[in-house]
Amino acid sequence: MKTIVFFDINGTLIERDERTDLPFSNAVDEVLGIKNAMKDVNTAARSDKDVFLEILTNHNMKFTEALWDKFVDAYTLKLEAYKFTDVWRPNADAIEFVEKLANTSVYMSLITGELSMGAQYKLEKIGLWKHFKSGGFGEDGLTRSEIADAALEKAKMDIGDSIDSIWVIGDTLLDIKTARHLGGKVISIATGANTEAELKALYPDDLINRFEEIDINRLLTEQ
Q1: Residue 162: CB atoms within 10 Å
Q2: Is the pTM of this model over 0.85?
Q3: Distance CA 32, CA 212 (A)
Q4: Quick count: other Cβ atoms within 10 Å of Cβ 19?
Q5: What gap in Å lies between CA 141 and CA 29, rounded to an integer?
């Protein structure tokens, strides 16, 4: 049986708090020359480029590819500068769960609005990057559904089109919608952007607070 488990990053594998987006926000402020340019911008489950576009709109600025490239260069330097700080920490018991799942036949991938370089910096910091075979990232699409489609296509390139089961694990309402978009099931973890009550309202297949609550056998056998 071929099973794919897609993970979100922020609020799921990485603890989400006011420090999580510091490299991104600092790069934005530097490039735009505006202090606290991201104020009141919700980044949860969105692509980095989509967030950047909203910030520009909020400050009556026009998007250009040159400006985006300038931001990406600045963001790269900020990621490197924060690499040895504690801005990225594992969420709940994410490390133990991912390492356990890595010893099964499950194909693990990512669906995140992060640019791939940001995802790599964050997950290398907590020692999990090596466990993910592929992923859909911020450069693969502007919307979550576009990114999810790209992630699925990359997975199929590795394991073929015959997939028995798709699961998405994430902390937001959009992760639930993404799972439905892919025709899969979803495990919502109430440690991030949305509350337990908000997540329940969209009827996830499972709702957890720690990864140890997940029945791995269910992931391996349930279609």
Answers
A1: 8
A2: yes
A3: 43
A4: 14
A5: 24
